[in-house]
Amino acid sequence: MSIMSYNGGAVLAMTGDQCVAVCSDLRFGRELQTISTDFTKVFEMNPHLWVGLPGLATDIQTVKQKIEFRMNMYELKESRQMKPKTFANMVSNMLYERRFGPFFVEPIVAGLDPVTFEPYICNMDLIGCITEPADFVAGGTSEEQLMGMAETLWEPKMKPDELFECISQAMMNAFDRDAASGWGAVVHIIEKEKVTTRTLKTRMD
Questions:
Q1: SS3 helix, strand, coil % of the chain, rounded to 5?
Q2: CA-CA distance, 56 to 130, in Å (whole number)?
Q3: Which helix (DSSP H) or strand (DSSP E) does residue 26 occupy?
Q4: Cα dihedral sign for 3, 29, 172, 47?
Q5: pLDDT tens across 144-161, in order?
Q6: Which helix (DSSP H) or strand (DSSP E) does residue 136 occupy?
Q7: What is the DSSP pairing of strand 42-46 with strand 28-30?
Q8: How far apart are CA 103 and CA 128, in angstroms?
């Protein structure tokens, strides 16, 4: 078993019409043993910017603290909010610094540009190589199932309610076919003036 799938987990992000959605499962496990069902893998960096960190649970917490520190330093120096693309490059640089002994996380960045409110999503591998698709990104142990479901359900220019339905159905149907992720999910819909967070009740087996 790969160290990336030791704790399990699934994260998915999708773009809509001036909105973006990011979703994570809630399982924290040790290989096939489930330890808790309230371990979210997506974190708010600022009201228009969220990051998902699928991978090894210890490194999720370490990387989250490190990027929070770097982001706070940037905002102190620059006196402005960090744009999602800038944030993605900052995370990528941090991971590449550790390329010979990497953090076992594959970050997913989702947010809206603070000026134009254009949706931005990207993901990267554990040494920080960025991919920036226009539609959706997935990560975690059920990545292949998530990509298959997202390709089937995603449509361009979805409104926030349609986007919520789409990402929820993609997530639930994908992690039902993966033993290392699931046990509920949390969905964040990021819009121009608000962020809506909903918790999904799913199969607990």
A1: 30, 30, 40
A2: 19
A3: none
A4: negative
A5: 999 999 999 999 999 999
A6: strand 136-140
A7: unpaired
A8: 10
- Among the listed residues 107, 111, 146, 147, the one whose alpha carbon sits nearest the alpha carbon of residue 130: 107
- Residue 104 CB contacts under 8 Å (≥ 6 apart), including other chains: 3, 4, 55, 56, 59, 126
Burial class (CB in 10 A: 0-12, 13-18, 19+), 164: buried
Closest to 105 in 3D by CA, of 73, 61, 165, 71: 61
Q: Band of the pLDDT at 82, cuts 50, 70, 90? A: very high
pLDDT tens per residue, range 40-72: 999 999 999 999 999 999 999 999 999 999 999
* Count of other CB atoms within 10 angstroms of residue 176: 14
DSSP state of 5: G
Phi, psi for 107 (deg, rounded to 5)? -60, 145
Q: How far is 160 from 112, CA to CA, in rounded Å?
A: 13
Q: How many CB atoms lie within 10 A of CB 126?
A: 19
pTM: 0.93
The pair of structure tokens assigned to 165 is 């339905």
